[in-house]
Amino acid sequence: MKNRIALAIAPVAALLLVTGCSAQTNGNDSGSDSEVGRAALVIAQGGLGDESYNDLALKGFNSGLKTNGMEGTSIESDDVVGQGEQVLRRAGDGGLGLVIDLEASHAEVLPRVAADYPDTDWVQLNAVAEGDNVASVVFQEQEGSYLAGALAAIHTTNTSDPKINPEKVIGVIGGTQAAGIDKFLVGFAQGARDVDPDVKVLVAYSNDFGDPTKGQQLAQSMFDQGADIVYAVAGGTGAGVIQAAKDANHYAVGVDTNQDGMAPGNVLTSMLKKTDVAMETVLADYAAGKFPAGKTINLGLKQDGVGLTDFEFTRDAIGEDTIARIDELKERIISGDIVVWNAIDSGNPDWFGKS
Asked: Which of 133, 301, 334, 335 is most exposed by smallest CB count within 10 Å?
């Protein structure tokens, strides 16, 4: 995923002038103008190769390009947060028809850039950005995380499982302390709290989305404190959490993409955030002349935008009764009977991090 080549198309090649920035061509790039215009995908913190958010989005982006006969490129920067405006303006200067930005921290700067490039359509993922030529895609990650937390709280009491200890302790590790990440963490903690208020939820932040060693160390620290299930919301750093779970013969919970196979039997489940589906949908609408300018697309459990995996390697350990209970909680969230706290809208609750 890390092999990247410079674009042969001169206008888009200007993107490479951003310090520490590189691009990868995808689709059928012949150098001729596409009827609908070329597309670009701005990669978020953690970069490609994270086996999570960025990789899954690129998979959907490439699939959408192929399905719609489009040309496109992915764009990476060594400092995608600090160079956000520069990266986006280079994309605008490249004459692209569509720019999809995976980096939530760009939500404030993207509207300013988009206003200066009215002939380009812009998409902000994971945050709401305003603009007449801007669409936003927001996932309700707190809903899927709630189910993961409920499952963890139930299963941490299942001492018939050799991977579970007698302590009612679970953990969650975020890549950084920010509302977009805390949305996952708070949802996870609420799910655990609702099914069993006596379960202790440890909380830590890696402050890095691409450091598996840090993730491994933090997860091992939680296991040493009595946790037997740790949820990782930290991009590539989460690979270390999964490795720690394998080494300690406990459980990790994966995120964004299906990570269950990274350590079969030691990943309890993964909280799916279907960025691949979002990419395919956005590209299809754009190619069809139906770009949702000025709108926000919300993808939660009801829209099948988030959810848990099918427990391919852990179904027997979890048991059908617990799976049925998680399915019931899912339906109650969809119906509105359970409202999951959204840290984006309401900040963090007083009880978060204090259990």
From this structure: 335
Give the β-pairing of 306-308 and 267-273: antiparallel
Q: Give me the mean pLDDT over the 45-64 stretch.
A: 93
Compute the residue count for the chain.
Answer: 355
Those residues with Cβ within 8 angstroms of residue 342's Cβ, 6 or more apart along the chain or in another chain: 140, 142, 183
* Range of 6-20, 37-51, 139-153 with top mean pLDDT: 139-153
Contact between 123 and 100 (Cβ < 8 Å): yes
Side chain identity at 173, as an amino acid letter? I
Report the C-alpha gap between 258 and 325 in whole angstroms: 21
pLDDT of residue 353: 82
Q: Are 321 and 155 in contact (CB under 8 A)?
A: no
The predicted structure's pLDDT at residue 355 = 58
DSSP single-letter state for residue 235? G
Going through 144-199 in order, the beta strands assigned E by DSSP cover: 169-174
Per the rule left: phi > 0, alpha: psi between -120 and 50, beta: everything else, 347 is left
**Once rounded to an integer, what is the mean pLDDT over residues 81-87?**
94
Burial class for 209, CB neighbours closer than 10 Å (0-12, 13-18, 19+)? buried
